[in-house]
Design goal:
globular, Peroxidase, domain 2, mainly alpha, Peroxidase, domain 1, 13 helices, two-stranded antiparallel ribbon, 4 strands, two-stranded antiparallel sheet
Length: about 325
């Protein structure tokens, strides 16, 4: 009996080991710095040079690339699926209404960096578009005066990109703290990380249509302005975005230092100058206010937090096995 019992226990232990081996492991564990050291040793400098060249042509390169990375990671994971172009038989992510405002310079930055990488024989078709986007994002942050950091690499490009997959996956400008926290948590991103990543709004611009509800007829009341909005700032926004203006007119998200990556975003929130409801709520909600105030007081503390949060963002939903993805020859087209 004991022998049979021991056999059963042994079999159960073996079965348990097999089950544990089959369980999905966090794919981020397979990302690592210097992933391409023996594959394409100079990839980071190649990408940086291409991004710098693009940056010299237009500053829009910076916010466009940064926003592209975020929109990519939050839908199907960081797999460059947002770059895929629609075809007659498939409407891709980039054509979802939430992605139509993504500036073309972000896409162009990745495409040009990819071309530069593939121009090197040793590197051709060996570096994923997803990794190039991650590196380019780090580089534009640095070019705008923000921190530089080591990027974890080893992502494969996704095999799917559909308009429908975007539904409900991206934060909206009207979101309150609970909605923001819940959406980020669904991607394994903490509330603190969410507040840090929101600091990227120190760069870039927004179309008037995205915040018109705060400066005109707020809450359905004729002529009302969102009371959480700084009155002087609201008047400035009304001047730049008069009623019935072309919704494609855009304003800087940070009116103080729009071309510098800094902690001004949090200083703006302290003054009631968050452009979106989803910005200002971070200061107005007592649960998130202490973090906003601490980063407003220290640019070093914000930079450190931002780097840690960007690293965690870069691990969301990554594909690292051949069954999950591949390396696209053309970032906009599946192989």
């Amino acid at each position: 009996m004991m022998a049979n019992h021991d056999v059963k226990v042994t079999l159960l232990l073996h079965l348990l080991v097999v089950i544990l081996c089959l369980l999905p492991r966090p794919s981020s564990a397979q990302l690592r710095q210097n992933y391409y050291a023996n594959i394409c040793p100079n990839v980071e400098s190649i990408v940086r040079n291409a991004v710098t060249q693009k940056f010299r042509q237009t500053f829009v390169t910076v916010p466009a690339t940064l926003r592209l990375f975020f929109h990519d990671c939050f839908v199907n994971g960081c797999d460059a699926s947002v770059i895929v172009a629609s075809t007659a038989s498939n409407k891709a992510e980039k054509d979802h209404p939430d992605n139509l405002s993504l500036a073309g310079d972000g896409f162009d930055t990745v495409i040009k960096a990819k071309a530069a990488v593939d121009a090197v024989d040793q590197c051709r078709f060996k570096v994923s578009c997803a990794d190039i986007l991650a590196m380019a994002t780090r580089d534009v942050i640095s070019l705008a005066g923000g921190p530089s950091y080591a990027v974890e690499l080893g992502r494969l490009d996704g095999l799917s990109s559909t308009e429908a997959s975007v539904n409900g996956r991206l934060p909206q400008p009207t979101f309150k703290l609970n909605q923001l926290t819940s959406l980020f948590a669904s991607n394994g991103i903490s509330q603190t990380d969410m507040i840090a990543l929101s600091g990227a709004h120190t760069l870039g611009f927004s179309h008037c249509s995205r915040f018109a509800n705060r400066i005109y007829d707020y809450g359905g009341r004729n002529g009302a302005v969102d009371p959480s909005l700084n009155r002087t700032y609201a008047t400035q926004l009304q001047g730049m975005c008069p009623r019935n203006v072309d919704p494609n007119v855009a304003v800087n998200m940070d009116p103080i230092t729009p071309r510098i990556f800094d902690n001004q975003y949090y200083l703006n929130l302290q003054q009631g100058m968050g452009l979106f409801t989803s910005d200002q709520v971070l200061r107005d909600d007592k649960r998130s206010r202490p973090i906003v105030d601490s980063w407003a007081a220290s640019s070093d503390a914000f930079n450190s937090a931002f780097v840690a949060s960007m690293t965690r963002l870069g691990r969301v939903g990554v594909k690292t096995s051949p069954s999950q993805g591949n390396i696209r020859r053309d970032c906009a087209v599946f192989n």
